[in-house]
Specification:
The complex is a heterodimer of chains A (667) and B (385). Helix content of chain A is 21%, strand content 43%. Chain A is α+β, with helices and mostly antiparallel strands and 667 residues long. In chain A, strands 17, 18, 19, 20, 21, 22, 23 and 24 form an eight-stranded antiparallel beta sheet that branches. Chain A has a seven-stranded antiparallel beta sheet with strand order 28-29-30-34-33-32-31. In chain A, a hairpin with a 5-residue loop joins strand 17 and strand 18. In chain A, helix 13 crosses helix 14. Chain B is mainly beta. In chain B, the strands form six sheets. Chain B has a six-stranded antiparallel beta barrel with strand order 8-9-10-13-12-11. The radius of gyration of chain B is 24 Å and the shape is globular. In chain B, 39% of the residues are buried. The chains are: A alpha+beta (667), B mainly beta (385). At the A-B interface, helix 1, strand 3, helix 2, helix 4 and strand 17 of A face strand 8, strand 11 and strand 12 of B.
């Protein structure tokens, strides 16, 4: 991973371009001077003559041709029809109506002393309009009768920080994560994560990168962290080159200091503080130095690190605020990426800055989950292209398809709401979901936006939702979808969905045969399930992707035929099957019982586990059947979570078990 | 209205210039022909007394010279293009050439999380009030579009039109008193003619960013819907959107890097001035491109796809339901041969032919159906972007 290389070289390449393009400002007499005379049929614009409708005076008001004069100034004049005109100039939007004294200036209705009028099919405006609305200066020379118009500002740009990312201050602070820092002059922002949790600042002149990150390390305090970092530098610092004598624990200062060379062999001086919202790391990389100790002794990084404060309280006005967080919310814009080649901007949301889970769909580009974990999240999934016909009927049908999998004891429908905002229609269903001992608010929302249908699921503990309903509503309603048609994106989505459909075993819920040619077993699962091979055919998982129901088949080749009549299964089975050993290792699982059973005319062992895990959203009994054949042993496991315990689902699981066969099965 | 300088144009001159003293005698009554570089021309040579005269216009065309008539001083200025005149030529055009710089949109494929995503190109000022033409691929993915004038001053620009079909875009800066470029005409685009491509004219890099070459052809390029000027000027990424000028300083094309490929050398493409003017005129009239729509999906013959000269026409492979073509009774397997008498044998020719019309116009298209010529009137609709 050459993150740092990418960081500063990319920046340096573009700096070269900027130097050429922007710093070459030299004075040029390019101010616009516009001159006219009453009764004369041309304008003088920087000595060029432009033919115009003659300016004239009427009842003491000087009228000049609107389009000619304003366009000469550099404005855009658009005829909207019916005597309406729009003038667009820098930050000014002026709407004019011929023969009306009313104008609209940046959305505000104002009145002119004299109305614009038509003269020979040309709109003539009172000249006084220019100083009033466009800040233009008009001088009149009574000797020559010449009017001269000039603009005090030529509108050119002087600040290019929007391009270069230059930070206009030496002292910067992130009030949300409560840190502040003094940076070298002429530093610029290299990157900031949407929630300002990770900030990279580059200073080309000193050859340094300053990274301030908020990390959720699982340590009780700085001392514990210091010991762990020193013992496992490659794990925590990505480095084996640690200058141990320069690494210190300053308990009084509340920080641990590490001096090391990173994965790219670039020297880094880093301090870690324990802040209010996790550990704060401030790292200075000196990419022009050869070794960590040389960089440390250069005197460059230490003043920066010394200036760091993990207790910034946002009261110092001289500190430049660098965080993007407003009122505890961060705007996240989602880009859907297919095969790392194309990025499509699909939606944006205002999300709680403290939410530290953001799964942006590495496995499924159509799906994103954000929140604090399995008990509080917002899922956003693009489900496909908008179908023909009534959206509400479609959304209702899809919602019912989702809900019917659940047991009514665990999932209760509470209310349905329909909404339309602009081009976006939504259909949402509020439910109560019971998992373990907690009741959750579970909101399923189908949204029609542009060419696509999206589904959002908001899951929050019911009490928490009731207390902060407004807050959750704000998050959900802040979702903005891209509605502009994009043919390429539609195509890519189609291809992805086609592949997803292809990955299913069969069609619909029709029981479909699955045969393992390597190990000789077979079973029948619903066609809309997906089979995932976690090994080389020896560990196959069958999943229903719209519920948490699953079946696992693990096969192990017997080293020697098991001695008949012995009862060693309990011990050997646990060692033999990954499924069983991993269940035994889970802290959230208990083995309820182990019973020998005779099923399918075969002696086998049935293990029953119980798993309770709110974070993994799994509350379920887990049944495993272990069968020992001559050549192979099989462990067939069934997971049917409580929430999906319906008669139909139980029958389906029974049917799958009934369909399971293997080569040496007793008749 | 009296102008200080007057550019001599075709058919407008009565001024004659003494070129050479004639010693050889020619028959007074028989016409005298000018043979230039072995090529017989239509230029009429006049004989007055012992001297032979040719029209100034002919000298301008033959020598690639710029001729100016100053009525106040009663002098004719004639600048013959050559090595020494190039810097002056570039200097005269550069106030109309701008650099365009901005940031890549985060939605762009090339956007990098670490990197400042600064991208740039060139453009050509075409009105003194700040309208600039450039390539769609320069500004299409750009945020904070910023225009840098040859004076070095920078201005925020607004995107006014983006037309990916022609790869042209119009942006605007709110600044008056600018120097618009002079546009040439399609007739001036002749194979072999010397041209100069200018890119981001940033002070010291000005000379480096101009490159000279000749027009190699007026061709199609891979995947393009319209004709392109092919030249051997070296067009670099920063030149995209900049002008291709002739030796009189007229813009005859907008340089586009879009269609060059790896391993291709001496092949640069520019969008011809007529396409540029088409886009500008459409924008000025309607604020967008009103592109005619027939509803026909046409297929080229294999030979046409290889770029071979063919006269096989275009095969109708689809007709959109309720479209103008459907209403005109055109069916699949009909073969389109011409539009209002202009032959169309490949898709570029078809698009170029349609470019002459606006939605609402009625065109007469001639098809071959079952071996018979059929002429069909089609009322053009508007293409939905």
């Amino acid at each position: 991973m050459n993150k740092y290389w990418k960081k500063w070289t990319a920046a340096l390449i573009s700096i070269a371009v900027l130097v050429v393009s922007i710093q070459s400002v030299f004075a040029a007499p390019d101010d616009v001077i516009i001159r006219w005379k009453e009764g004369r049929n041309y304008l003088e614009v920087n000595q060029q003559h432009i033919p115009i409708q003659k300016p004239f005076s009427r009842e003491g008001t000087l009228y000049i041709p609107l389009r000619s004069v304003l366009e000469a100034m550099g404005a855009e004049v658009v005829w909207l029809g019916d005597g309406k005109i729009r003038v667009d100039f820098r930050q000014i939007d002026l709407r004019i109506q011929v023969n009306s004294q009313e104008v609209i200036y940046n959305g505000e209705i104002q009145e002119l002393e004299d109305a614009p009028r038509m003269e020979n099919k040309t709109v003539m405006i009172p000249a006084e309009l220019l100083p009033v609305y466009f800040d233009a200066q008009i001088d009149y020379n009574s000797d020559t009768g010449m009017y001269t118009l000039q603009l005090p500002e030529d509108g050119s740009l002087t600040d290019f920080s929007f391009l270069t990312g230059n930070i206009p201050a030496r002292k910067i602070g992130n009030s949300y994560y409560q840190w502040s820092l003094q940076i070298p002059p002429h530093s610029r922002m290299l990157n900031s994560s949407f929630n300002s949790k990770e900030i990279s600042i580059l200073n080309e002149y000193q050859g340094m990168i300053i990274d301030v990150n908020v990390e959720n390390y699982d340590f009780a305090d700085i001392t514990e962290l210091y010991d762990a970092f020193l013992n496992f530098p490659s794990l925590y610092l990505g480095s084996d080159v640690l200058e141990e004598e320069l690494c210190t624990l300053e308990e009084d200062g509340g920080y641990a200091q590490f001096v090391y060379a990173d994965v790219l062999d670039e020297p880094v001086c880093m301090r870690v503080y324990l802040g209010e919202q996790g550990f704060l790391t401030v790292a200075v990389t000196g990419y022009l130095y050869n070794s960590p100790d040389m960089f440390f002794e250069s005197g460059k990084p230490i003043p920066i690190l010394d200036s760091f404060s993990a207790m910034y309280d946002n009261t110092d006005e001289s500190i430049y605020e660098i965080s993007n967080i407003k009122d505890g919310m961060a705007e996240y814009t989602h880009f859907m990426t297919f095969y790392d080649e194309v990025r499509y901007q699909t939606w944006s949301v205002l999300m709680d800055a403290s939410w530290d889970m953001l799964d942006t769909g590495d496995r499924n580009p159509l799906h994103t989950r954000m929140g604090t974990g399995g008990t509080e999240y917002l899922d956003i999934t693009l489900t496909g292209k908008k179908p023909a016909g009534n959206f509400e009927a479609y959304a209702e049908k899809e919602t019912q398809k989702l809900l019917e999998k659940y047991s009514p004891l665990y999932m209760k429908e509470i209310a349905v709401q329909k909404e339309t905002t602009g081009k976006v229609h939504s259909f949402s269903t509020q439910c109560q979901l019971t998992m373990g001992n907690t009741i959750y608010m579970y909101q399923i929302r189908y949204i029609s936006a542009g060419s696509f249908i999206y589904r959002t699921i908001l899951k929050v503990p019911w009490d928490q939702y009731s207390d902060q309903e407004e807050y959750y509503r704000k998050i959900v309603s802040s979702l903005q979808f891209q509605t502009k048609k994009n043919m390429q994106m539609e195509k890519d989505v189609d291809v992805y969905l086609y592949r997803l459909e292809k990955s299913k075993i069969g069609k619909d819920t029709t029981p479909t045969d699955f045969y393992s040619p390597l190990y000789g077993w077979s079973l029948q699962v619903p066609g809309n399930w997906v089979a995932v091979d976690l090994g080389e055919g020896d560990f196959v998982t069958f999943l229903d992707d719209t519920s948490d129901i699953g079946v696992f088949v693990e096969t192990v080749e017997n080293e020697a035929p098991p001695a008949s009549g012995t009862n060693k299964e309990e011990n050997t089975d646990m060692q033999m099957f990954t499924m069983l050993s991993s269940m035994m290792e889970r802290e959230d699982a208990v083995l309820l019982n182990t019973v020998p059973v005779k099923e399918k005319n075969t002696d086998m062992t049935q293990y029953t586990f119980r798993v309770d895990n709110a974070e993994d959203e799994l509350f379920s009994d887990v049944y495993s059947y272990v069968i020992h054949g001559t050549e192979y042993s099989y462990c067939v496991t069934f997971v049917l979570p409580d929430a999906f315990q319906t008669e139909k689902n139980s029958q389906m699981m029974k049917a799958i078990w009934n369909s399971f066969t293997w080569t040496e099965q007793g008749e | 209205m009296k102008k200080n300088k007057w550019y001599i144009t075709a058919g407008a001159t009565a001024v004659i210039l003494c070129l050479l003293a004639a010693t050889a005698s020619a028959g007074v009554d028989s016409p005298i022909h000018l043979v230039l570089n072995g090529q017989k021309t239509d230029v009429k040579v006049m004989r007055v007394g012992e001297e032979l005269y040719i029209p100034l216009k002919a000298a301008q065309d033959a020598l690639g010279a710029t001729v100016q008539w100053n009525s106040q001083s009663n002098t004719v200025h004639m600048d013959v293009a050559g090595e020494d005149s190039l810097p002056a030529l570039i200097q005269s055009v550069s106030p109309s050439v701008v650099g365009i710089i901005g940031k890549l949109k985060p939605s762009s494929t090339d956007y990098m999380d670490y990197g400042d995503n600064v991208v740039f190109g060139s453009g050509v000022i075409y009105t003194s009030s700040g309208y600039i033409i450039t390539n769609a691929h320069v500004v299409g993915e750009m945020d904070y579009i910023t225009v840098v004038l040859s004076s070095g001053k920078s201005y925020a620009a607004k995107l006014k039109l983006l037309d990916e079909e022609t790869d042209l875009a119009i942006i605007k800066i709110d600044k008056g008193g600018l120097v618009p470029a002079k546009f040439g005409s399609l007739q001036e685009i002749v194979v072999g003619k010397e041209v100069v491509a200018i890119g981001t004219p940033m002070s010291f890099s000005l000379r480096n960013s101009a490159s000279r070459g000749i027009i190699s052809g007026i061709n199609r390029t891979a995947d393009s819907a319209y004709r392109y000027i092919q030249s051997d000027t070296s067009i670099n990424p920063g030149n995209s959107g900049g002008p291709l000028i002739d030796m009189q300083g007229n813009v005859i094309g907008i340089n586009s890097m879009k269609y060059t490929g790896i391993g291709v050398e001496g092949l640069s493409f520019s969008i011809p001035i007529d396409t540029v003017q088409y886009v500008i005129e459409q924008y000025q009239k309607y604020g967008r491109i009103r592109r005619p729509f027939t509803g026909l999906t046409l297929g080229e013959s294999i030979a046409a796809r290889y770029g071979l000269p063919v006269s096989e026409g275009l095969i109708v492979i689809g007709v959109e339901k309720d479209s103008p073509a459907a209403k005109a009774g055109i069916g699949e397997e009909d073969v389109l041969h011409s539009i209002n008498g202009v032959a169309v044998n490949n898709l570029v020719e078809y698009n170029e032919a349609l470019k002459q019309y606006t939605p609402g116009d009625i065109i007469s298209a001639s098809f071959k159906r079952n071996g018979k010529e059929v002429s069909v009137k089609i009322k053009l609709a508007e293409a939905i972007e």
